[in-house]
Amino acid sequence: MMGKAIVAEAMARQAVSFVLGAATALTLVMLVQYRAPAEGLSSAWTHGQISRSRSSDEQYHRHNETARTVHQAPSVSGDDHDLHQADTILKGVEEAEEFRGLAVAVSRAAMDDRTVIITCVNQAWVAPGSLLDLFLESFRIGDGTARLLPHVLVVTMDPAAHARCLAVHRHCYQHTIPGINLDFFGPEEWLDLVWSKLKLQRRILELGYGFLFTDVDVMWLRDPFKHVTAYADMTISSDNYFGDPDYIDNLPNTGFFHMKPNRRTIAMTKLWHESRSSYPGLNEQPVFNVIKTRLVAELGVRLRYLDPVHMGGFCSYGKDLGKIVTMHANCCVGLSKKMRDLRGVLDDWRNYTMLPSWEKHRAEWTVPGACIK
Fold this sequence. Notes:
Structural class: alpha/beta
Radius of gyration: 33 Å
Distance between the termini: 137 Å
Number of strands: 10
């Protein structure tokens, strides 16, 4: 009897333990089901659905990383950092269509110090044997300029120019200008095209990059960055130079200039572009010449001119091939005339580089006879 009682008691304890365990498990299941909606889960989701959710979340984060890479303003010097960062994010939304892809194109071409070389071309200037070919050739045969070629961003103004650019150069960006019909291209459309370059240049500054803008009819024979000072916000070539790089009344040529990214240059390019309406029918160069004193006085822009002994042009150039850095086909109207005389510039340079060192001082430029008579 005693044995039966012990067995019965043990079985009762096991039954109670089983019931308590089952009740606990049932309670936990009910709690989980109750809490599931609050955690954003559903008992009806399958493993595949959860996997798709995780994949979407990863794509979202990758998209955000890409957006930060493209649209976040790079750091700039001094107290301008916060201004550039905030302004760039806003502008990236406002002007995404007009400048779509520009941030990526600039970042790929830029040097380590966030400087990019820019030139602009249309269909006529990129035809085989035309200005773009001479421009690129000058980098290849210049003294220390071949290493700069990977940092040249060619901005194309029409689809045909873009296709040709992609065939001959690594970095090309097609600039779509709202409101311009390239099938009906008249004087007003040409002015819109010219002034659009200034908006693009300002956008590059807003992205936190400096640039050296060069017309495509400028031959690069040596490295011009050696003549750009850290002091100046804008360093610009001159058609009429009076011997002092800080003399405000030197005559500027906007076909070759360097700009640093800061508040002054951004405000300057904005005011410059807005001044177009005050001088109808004029392109950006004469307007800049008129307002340059105001830019310096009101905005504190530090402007400095380049000596034509180094940055020459057909308007004014140094005689010493040992000092020349660039040669611009300015003071010349007509594509065929520019082409003829620029070929002469490259021929003179090749002849100069082939001379022995003791004969180089005798080398002279051939007078640009097609452009200047």
